[in-house]
Task: inverse folding
């Protein structure tokens, strides 16, 4: 089975290349659908497949930048991108990315990068999963209350309303982002992007894992606009991050190119699927994806703590991350096919 493994010239590891293709295609679909660079799955996925954590981060950032550019152009055609909001967030993102990248280099020097990054992933994924499902639960509660009062609930109303409260903080300068329909202090998106930029640098994510929900819950963007705007910001920050990690010698370009080939195809499917699945449908699937990724990271952590069954746990971690990527990708692709069929059927019926 040696033909299933490929030598990576920069990192020096032997990698299971079909895993790269599955990750690339699957994360392209998932990234285009959720508005994420997908690194929250790819970085632990590459680490599980055999990359040292610093190389997993740098390689992921490189493939993420190219894929996000493709998805952004597609979302722009649907009117799902607020370019002014995205450009505003770049101020904090670039500073945050460099701080995070420098922290990774320091953690690598003291030999703690793998453990620290994995535990940061665990904490972050738990927090994100709780926010998403707590929001869904509050939304359903409001729907039940509206039904009891015989009134129709506003489709734009959400469970968590942190965005409305933060928009009420009037710290000059105040700005209006017309495409997103948001009026707030300029410092709100800048502070959000500073934190997500730091995450981009230290975890190898484009910040999308937290930026998409942050745009929804903290800035107050509609979900479909948060998806497109986030991808635009991920693409720009990813290009900077890729340049930074390549300069530091932590980017495996061969692996990034292999993944990008699959991601370019998958991104088109994911973006089109958002046309047929809106609002809370996207949020629920996003929450399930986060839980799947959390399980794989926990299994990898247990592998180092329980060496007696380490091989079994390593296999389970690989199966989990690749399995969840595959299942969610299949679901999203099916939603796109079903929606397209229904749309064509409606057009035919209207033409009769």
Result:
């Amino acid at each position: 089975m040696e033909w299933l493994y490929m030598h990576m010239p920069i990192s020096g590891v032997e990698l299971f290349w079909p895993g790269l293709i599955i990750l690339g295609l699957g994360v392209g679909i998932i990234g285009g659908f959720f508005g994420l660079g997908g690194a929250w799955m790819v970085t632990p996925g590459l680490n599980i497949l055999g990359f040292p954590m610093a190389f997993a981060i740098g390689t992921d950032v490189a493939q993420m930048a190219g894929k996000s550019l493709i998805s952004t152009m597609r979302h722009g055609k649907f009117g799902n991108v607020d370019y002014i909001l995205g450009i505003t967030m770049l101020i904090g993102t670039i500073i945050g990315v460099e701080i995070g990248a420098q922290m990774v280099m320091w953690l690598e020097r003291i030999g703690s990068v793998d453990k620290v990054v994995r535990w940061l992933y665990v904490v972050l994924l738990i927090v994100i999963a709780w926010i998403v499902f707590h929001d869904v639960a509050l939304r359903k509660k409001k729907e039940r209350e509206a039904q009891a009062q015989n009134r129709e609930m506003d489709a734009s109303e959400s469970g968590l309303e942190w965005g409305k409260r933060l928009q009420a903080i009037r710290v000059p300068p105040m700005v209006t982002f017309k495409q997103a329909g948001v009026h707030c202090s300029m410092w709100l998106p800048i502070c959000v992007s500073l934190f997500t930029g730091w995450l981009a640098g230290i975890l190898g994510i484009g910040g999308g894992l937290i930026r998409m929900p942050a745009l929804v819950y903290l800035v107050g963007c509609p979900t479909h606009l948060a998806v497109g705007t986030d991808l635009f910001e991920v693409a720009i920050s990813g290009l900077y991050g890729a340049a930074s990690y390549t300069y530091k010698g932590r980017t495996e370009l061969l692996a990034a190119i292999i993944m990008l080939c699959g991601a370019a195809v998958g991104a088109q499917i994911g973006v089109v699927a958002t046309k047929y699945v809106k609002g809370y449908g996207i949020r629920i699937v996003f929450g399930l994806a986060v839980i799947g990724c959390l399980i794989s990271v926990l299994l990898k952590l247990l592998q180092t703590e329980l060496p007696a069954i380490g091989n079994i746990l390593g296999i389970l971690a690989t199966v989990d991350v690749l399995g969840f990527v595959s299942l969610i990708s299949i679901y999203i692709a099916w939603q796109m096919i079903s929606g397209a069929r229904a749309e064509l059927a409606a057009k035919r019926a209207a033409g009769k």
